[in-house]
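can u do me a favor
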């Protein structure tokens, strides 16, 4: 069964975007370091909300930790 959504036509037209749009969250690294917003990280001049760790992320982190420990033990490093 497939549902189809029919929307009425509106008389308003969407404005055309012809100029380059700057992200609203653009911030310099210096500004970010002085006052970092909570649960946000700075990526290439933009603020990105941090997402929580997922189960898949935790598994990868655990495997990486195990591999590093095994390498450390086998190579004789302290």
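np, heres the sequence
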């Amino acid at each position: 069964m497939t549902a189809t959504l029919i929307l009425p036509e509106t008389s308003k037209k969407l404005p055309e975007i012809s100029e380059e749009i700057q992200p609203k969250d653009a911030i310099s690294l210096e500004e970010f370091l002085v006052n970092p917003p909570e649960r946000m990280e700075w990526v290439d001049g933009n603020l990105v909300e941090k997402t929580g760790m997922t189960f898949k992320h935790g598994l990868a982190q655990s495997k990486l930790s195990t591999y590093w420990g095994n390498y450390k033990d086998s190579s004789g490093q302290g």
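The two ends are 63 Å apart (CA to CA). hope that helps!!
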